[in-house]
């Protein structure tokens, strides 16, 4: 699933491709992609004649800002946009086409069909689902070590599921949470109250730098992600733990392990990310009870 760096890359590409283009008509061939308004005909009718002014991002969502409307688009697993000339063959996985007045069209393809689009009046989109519950933007000024700690304080889950929760921090997913926790030297199963003040600073810095470097590289092309022009990102070559099970840690040489934390495949260097105290006791007790 595209995470913040990949969606940011799509946003930048769309800004290059479709800014100032005016929509002549919209074709929707898979109605369930359109979540708001209820009828795809209303969606298409409202967009006809509107010009795309800019494209923004909130968490993993794209916000296409038009004259008098905001289109919120989530790519979910495999959604992707591409700009074509009218008349070029249409791929069977194309579900929405924005036909522009200039003879080009923006096509939304989605093999898995999990993507969504919502249409709002300006200002309304940030007050209503799906954007209203999103947490801190990790590349904005509001994201500081104090804000990060404040948002997670008192939570009883483990660090990894907390960082994946979009209502605390928006935009992180499985790849960048594993990378950030590794860089901060924090075990994914550590509890919030097991982090020292210096850990929060390290975690803040690692989230920020991992995302910034990934944006710089155009995102990670793990599985099928490509940007709006069909180009792959290159950050997958720089990943330190994600997808590197049984490969040596680039920092200490210990083999990277993969386990399941909060239902998600999780990559850890147990040397660089030692088990938290609570788990060390638990695993010792488990061993003792096995010996008995
Ligand atoms: Zn290591």
What does this structure look like?
- Its cofactor is Zn(2+).
- Keywords: DNA damage, DNA repair, DNA-binding, Glycosidase, Hydrolase, Lyase, Metal-binding, Multifunctional enzyme, Zinc, Zinc-finger.
- Monomer.
- Belongs to the FPG family.
- This is Formamidopyrimidine-DNA glycosylase.
- The longest helix has 20 residues, at 197-216.
- With 292 residues, the chain is an alpha+beta fold.
- It folds into two domains: 4-120, Alpha-Beta Barrel (N-terminal domain of MutM-like DNA repair proteins), CATH 3.20.190.10; 145-291, Helicase, Ruva Protein, domain 3 (Orthogonal Bundle).
- The chain has helices at 4-18, 40-47, 145-152, 159-164, 174-184, 197-216, 277-291, and strands at residues 23-28, 34-36, 52-58, 61-66, 69-74, 80-85, 94-100, 104-109, 116-120, 257-261, 264-268.
- The N and C termini lie far apart (45 Å).
- 37% of the residues are buried.
- It is built from seven helices and eleven strands.
- It is 28% helix and 21% strand.
- α1 (4-18) packs parallel to α6 and α5 packs across α6.
- The strands form three sheets. The protein has a five-stranded mixed β-sheet with strand order 2-9-5-4-3, with helices on one face.
- Zinc ion binds at residues 249, 251-252, 254, 269, 271-272.
Short description:
With 292 residues, this protein is of the alpha+beta class. The chain is built from seven helices and eleven strands. It has two domains: 4-120, MutM-like, N-terminal (N-terminal domain of MutM-like DNA repair proteins); 145-291, Orthogonal Bundle (Helicase, Ruva Protein, domain 3), CATH 1.10.8.
């Amino acid at each position: 699933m595209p995470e913040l760096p990949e969606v940011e890359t799509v946003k930048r590409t769309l800004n290059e491709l479709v800014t100032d283009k005016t929509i002549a008509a919209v074709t929707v061939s898979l109605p369930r992609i359109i979540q708001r308004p209820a009828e795809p005909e209303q969606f298409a009718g409202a967009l006809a004649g509107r010009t795309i002014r800019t494209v923004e991002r909130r968490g993993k969502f794209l916000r296409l800002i038009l004259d008098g409307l905001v289109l919120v688009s989530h790519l979910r697993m495999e959604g992707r946009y591409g700009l074509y000339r009218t008349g070029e063959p249409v791929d069977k996985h194309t579900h929405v086409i924005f036909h522009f007045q200039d003879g080009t069209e923006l096509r939304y393809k989605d093999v898995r069909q999990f993507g969504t689009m919502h249409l709002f009046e300006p200002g309304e989109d940030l007050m209503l689902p799906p954007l209203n519950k999103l947490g801190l933007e990790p590349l904005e000024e509001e994201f500081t070590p104090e804000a990060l700690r404040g948002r997670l304080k008192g939570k009883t889950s483990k660090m990894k599921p907390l960082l994946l929760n979009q209502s605390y921090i928006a935009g992180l997913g499985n790849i960048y949470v594993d990378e950030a926790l590794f860089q901060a030297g924090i075990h994914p199963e550590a509890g919030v109250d097991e982090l020292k003040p210096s850990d929060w600073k390290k975690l803040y810095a690692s989230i920020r730098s991992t995302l910034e470097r990934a944006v710089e590289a155009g995102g990670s092309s793990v599985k099928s992600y490509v940007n709006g022009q069909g180009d792959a990102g290159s950050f997958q070559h720089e990943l330190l733990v994600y997808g590197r099970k049984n490969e040596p840690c680039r920092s200490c040489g210990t083999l990277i392990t993969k386990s399941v934390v909060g239902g998600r495949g999780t990559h850890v260097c147990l040397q660089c990310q030692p088990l938290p105290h609570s788990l060390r006791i638990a695993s010792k007790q488990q061993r003792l009870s096995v010996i008995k």
